[in-house]
Amino acid sequence: MIELVTTRYAYLVVVVLLAIGVYTMIESSNFVKKIIGLNIFQTGIFVFFITGAYHVNGRSPVVESGGGGGPFVSPLPHVLILTAIVVGVSLTAVALGLVVRIHESYGTLNEDTLSEVLADD
Amino acid sequence: MTDIASLRPALAVAVAAAAVVPILASGRRPNVREGWTVLAAGGAFALVASMLPAALDGTVRVSHLGTLVAGVDLSLRADPLGLLFATVASLLWLVTSFYSIGYMRGLGENDQTRYFAAFAASVAAALGVAFAANLVTLFVFYELLTVATYPLVTHDETAEARAAGRKYLAYTFGGGVAVLAGTVLVAAMTGTTAFTAGGIAGLVDADPVLSRAAFVLLVGGFGVKAALMPVHSWLPDAMVAPTPVSGLLHAVAVVKSGVFGIARVVLDVYGVDLTGALGLGLPLAVVAAATLTLASVIALRQDNLKRRLAFSTVSQLSYIVLGIAILDPTAVVGGLLHIPAHAFMKLTLFFTAGAIHVETHTDDISDMAGIGKRMPLTMLAFGVAAAGMAGIPLVAGFVSKWYLLIGSVSAEQSVFAVVLLLSGILNIAYFWPVFYQAFFEAEDDHDAKPLVEFPLGGEPRSILPETPTPDSGAVTDGGHGDHGDHGHDDHGYDKHDEHGHDDEHDDDHGGPPADGWERRGWLGGESTWFMLGPILVAMTGAVLIGVIPETAVFLRLVDLIVEGATGVSVL
Amino acid sequence: MTDTLVPLLVAGPLLGALLTVAAGLLDDRAPPVVAVLTLVGQVGLAGWMGSRALLDGPLSNGVGGFVAPYGIELVVDGVSAVIVSLVALVSLGVLFYAVDDDPGGTAFYTEYLLLVAGLSGMSVTGDVFNLYVFLEISGLATYALVASAGTGRSAVAALKYLLFGTVAASLYLLGVGYALVATGTLNMADLSVKLAQVGYDSPLVLASFGFIVVGLATKAALFPLHTWQPDAYNDAPDSVSAFISALVSTVAAYALFRLLYTVYTPAFFEAVPVARDALVVFATLSIVVGSVLAVVQSEVKRMLAYSSVSQYGLVVVGLAIGTPAAVFGAVVHLVGHAVMKGGLFVAAGTVDDLTGARTVDEYAGLADRFPVLGGASALLMLAMVGVPPAVGFAGKWYIALGAVRAGTWPVAVIIFGSTLLTLAYFTLLIERMFVAPASPSVRAATDGGERGLDRPDRPSRVALTLIVVAAVAAIALGLAVTNLQVALEPTLDTLLAT
After folding, report:
1. What is the DSSP string of B399-434?
2. I need a labelling partner for C90 at 20 to 30 A (CA). Which of B126, B511, C437, C456 fits?
3. What CA–CA distance (Å, rounded) separates C106 from C103?
4. Lowest-confidence range among A58-72, B317-331, C165-179, C257-271?
5. Which domain holds residue B390?
6. Closest to C431 (Cβ–Cβ): which among B139, B162, B185?
7. Closest approach of chain A CAs to the CA of C124, in angstroms?
8. C262-315 confidence digits (pLDDT tens)
9. C423 found inside a domain
10. Residue B476: what pLDDT?
11. Is there a contact between C155 and A31 if contact means CB atoms under 8 Å apart?
12. What is the mean pLDDT of residues B214-239?
């Protein structure tokens, strides 16, 4: 157990981040907090990918001329996550845009209040 | 039997289906619209009839129209069994077309364009059912038939009609699902669904449990439209439709498509031998026998003439199923011959019920005392057809019942012969009172109807005549309570050409006018020839089948079918 | 076969989206024109590529000259050819409706084209991470489109959809992560080989399967992951609900098909039967619960939405059973459902515009007043129920045949029974439309008089044409299904070979 914590602590971070993210999304009735939860959740996944790329004693994957020079950290997950971060940012932007619209229309960001308002419509 | 490629089977279906378009397009000109209906009906019948001579010589015309799903052709095949059904349906469509004109115009019904279009579509689907060369094609037309008939059932657009329509769809689509499931099982077991005289070979080696399951699904599914008990109850409710619909569709095309499906399954999918070997004939026969007895008993207590006829249909359809289920060649001949026999007789009966409704707005038997004065020809036709139903010689019903009796005895299942005879007696019991009181009773002086009017078990007054008030017929159902209020002068025949009676006849159950039925002559003064003609034609058909069954084609056709399916010729 | 034009299937609409923005700066009327032209081009390209892929075998292209498995590979095989053509055709059709019905501004058409790009990308990509990116692109565009109704309600629905959709896509990404850790590759074809080498019972592979399936099932709106979908369909603008109901979940279900059969392959199901069983249970539950929920809805659009939950259940059952007939049936039903449901949503939108009727009861008497609209809608509904010879029947036939051949009896029973459930909600609507006395809203729409808002007095030609075309297509597809089967046979044979 101890060994797991010391050698695989990065995965623990992943699990904790995912859990916090999901919990926030479910528990909080405030839309902005839900979006924050979503971001934390995604961050957990990003960390998971990056952790998977790690190589003991690995160096930055910059190949010198003539090749060789390993071992390298796998560059692929980094590239992927760069893309995923961009996607995540766009999503957050759209989500916040929608939140602004909701606030303009109903004057609240609380999910429970909102469902009461919508039921009255 | 040789197959030749021909477009005629497809053309017959196409003529009926194509008629929908000009009928809808000429909705504003009723005469043109009805012209199209008659033209299409005549064309379809001519096409079907043109295939008969070759079919009797053993030539089968087949139209291939492509592939429906993998391994299943969309093809139409005019084999003897298909032609039997198609001839009945298309000939009677022609007759019914004229009757529809008289009926719909006589009542000034709404939405006549939709009515005639849906009628043509229904007959097209029925012809498709008849000619379908495999189970899947049959299923396709079987479902289309349900859809096409729905607007006819709900034609009145009243709450009652909608409820009947809902029930109709639920029952028949439910049956359709069972048929589909059975079809899929057969396809999965044998890789084919094509009808083969004597049965699909692959089924003999198939897992008997699955084979039985598929049989139950198929027959159960078709049994819904064939109104086998306990899935019959949509049929009496569907009587809310206009009478020509009840006549052609709910006594001929739709219900017979169910019976026809059962015949196909027993004769051309499983084959008589395999059905017997799997032990499936007897249970089906028992269900049919129970249905035909029970339905006859229920019919005794129906006061509404159309409902009584509906239960009679339920009962008579089971004659056909029983004949097939006995699995004896002679019995099968009787069963199949009952398809045209019952069609002609029951159509006559429904037509008379409709004529009475149009002329006098009378629907209940208890209001019909003395109506023979008013509608002599109509009621005479009723009497002839009813006699046929009971199996009295010289009318069609006798011939088919004869073969049924011989068959059940020779198959050593004499108990079914007893059931058939008993049912004949019940037939007389529920038809005779109608005829009797039409001709032999008077409006203001008629006997009580113990079975209809009294509680079960009878009551002391059952042997005495009822108190002679003009409205005495109203005891049976609550709807009659208003008779006394608006008097009798606003019912009846003299109103039918005026506007506004539509609202009236919904809550009016008719009955004789205050001064009794007017006496009309025997030369057609009672109604229009648009209605009388079809009634007499249908009645004549029933008599012809009874007198000269072989010349009237049907018996020879039936014999050919049975010879193909069992190898035994009965004639 | 390598073909350098494959990326155009994605690049075309993307470029069109950019051009739309530019055109919008010049002239307000230009964006719809650009969008239509782009999609006409897309239809031509997809049709051309698709027919070649069906006739000559798969076309592929390593984007940017990086060869697979290192670069991103785009592949058009038989099934993706069908889907990408479907996307192009339906999006063009619905675009006409959008232009006619509620023309939005530049943003609307840009998002529309982005969505088409995303969906086309999902259809042709051969790379699991690339699929994620396209999933998110189409997701983003959809959220924006749903909110484009401009109401507060639509914003709420869009946000709800966004939260669900993003979690779903993230779960999918997590699954991809597991697969990447297990195999070190992202190329689908390459993955299928390496996953087998790793061993199908490896926890990594199982975890990746689980996350991917749950992620895509949420996008395809299977019960109980469907809760975003009815609101999104109901509150979006009419043209958008027609579009997303027809395509978005369809392509998600296609992605599931792609993952199951290209990446995990039938061998995975052989090795881990519990995965198949779980998927079957999941999907059959969806069929039943979706139908039941549809029956109890009073609003027509919501009813149609829940009906989709059930229909996608049917598709996934077909995929999970995995016999050739069942998988082909699933593809047929996917295509058929897109056509039928798209047509029905256009019809629902048109009825709303004409009469303001939104509930089942308000539809009463509709067909008497608008016979063509009512008749074509009824045809589509009956096709959906599975009345032959329409395409709804064909799909059901193959899936049922597959289930029976595979001996999964309970599933077969549910497939047949689901017909009756479908019937239950559609006949209710048909009965109202045809044989019930007209509802106040329908009466108001035709008698003039107190027509509060300025409503059109007859359905627009464009909408009517689309509905009729959808109805005709539903029947034509049903009759042409064997041709499709012949065309898809080589592709499916390759995919299903164990």
Report:
1. HHHHHHHHHHHHTT-HHHHHHHHHHHHHHHHHHHHH
2. C456
3. 10
4. A58-72
5. 342-571
6. B162
7. 19
8. 998 888 988 999 999 999 999 999 999 999 999 899 889 999 999 999 999 999
9. yes
10. 43
11. no
12. 90
In a domain, C139, yes or no: no
Q: Do chains A and B touch (3 or more CB pairs under 8 A)?
A: no
Positions in chain A whose pLDDT score sits under 70: 121
Does position B477 have pLDDT exceeding 70, yes or no? no
CB contacts, 8 Å: C433 with chain B: none
> Chain C closest CA to A4's CA: distance in Å?
17
Is C141 within a domain? no
Q: Residue B506 pLDDT > 70, yes or no?
A: no
Q: What is the pLDDT of residue B561?
A: 86
Q: Any idea which of B131-140, B214-223, B468-477, B550-559 has the lowest mean pLDDT? A: B468-477
Q: What six digits make up the tokens of C287?
A: 């069929």
pLDDT at residue B496, as a whole number: 40
pLDDT of residue A97: 93
Work out the widest C-alpha separation in chain A, in whole angstroms. 72
Distance from C-alpha of B79 to C-alpha of C251, rounded to nearest angstrom: 47
User: What pLDDT, on the 0 to 100 scale, is given for residue C367?
Assistant: 84
CB-nearest to C416 from B147, B181, B188 is B181
Residue B257 lies in a domain: no
Cα(B206)–Cα(B446) distance, integer angstroms:
63
Number of domains chain A is built from: 1
Taking the CB of residue B207, how many other CB atoms lie within 10 A of it?
11
Count of domains for chain C: 1
What CATH number is associated with residue A90?
1.10.287.3510
Q: Give the dihedral sign, CA B143/B145/B151/B154.
A: negative
- Name the residue facing A34 among C133, C144, C163 (closest C-beta): C163
With contact defined as beta carbons under 8 Å apart, do C6 and C60 qualify? yes
Domain assignment present for residue C291? The answer is: yes
Q: What percent of chain B has pLDDT above 90? A: 15
CB contact under 8 A, C167 and A49: no
In chain A, which residues have their Cβ closer than 8 Å to the Cβ of C162?
Answer: 91, 94-95, 98
Contacts of C180 in chain A (CB under 8 A): 49, 52, 76-77
What pLDDT was estimated at residue C473?
Answer: 93
Residues in chain C within 8 Å Cβ distance of B184: 397, 400-401, 404, 412
pLDDT at B248 over 50: yes
Which residues 162-191 in chain C show a CB within 8 A of chain A?
Answer: 162-163, 166-167, 170, 173-174, 177, 180-181, 184, 186
Domain contains B456: yes
| E strands, B31-161, in order | 59-69, 72-78
Question: How many folded domains does chain B comprise?
Answer: 1
Phi and psi at A86, nearest 5°, equal -60, -45
CB contacts of B188 in chain C (<8 Å) are 401, 404-405
Provide the pLDDT for residue A10.
83
Q: How confident is the model at residue B516 (pLDDT cuts 50, 70, 90)?
A: confident
Instruction: Supply the range of the domain harboring residue A86.
Output: 2-120
CA atoms of B391 and B542, how far apart (whole Å): 12
Report yes or no on B562 lying in a domain.
yes
Which member of C385, C435, C485 has the closest CB to residue B154?
C435
Nearest-Cα distance to chain C for B468, in Å, is 42
In a domain, B355, yes or no: yes
Distance in Å, alpha carbon of C296 to nearest chain B alpha carbon: 17
Q: Residue C299: beta bridge partners?
A: C359
Instruction: Look at residue B399 in the predicted model and tell me its pLDDT.
Output: 87
What does the block give as tokens for B40? 């299409």
Asked if C140 is an interface residue toward chain A (Cβ–Cβ < 8 A), one would say yes
Q: Which of C387, C400, C436 is facing B184, going by the closest CB pair?
A: C400
Q: What subunits make at least 3 CB pairs under 8 angstroms with B?
A: C
Domain housing C377: 272-498
A45:C136 CB<8 A? no
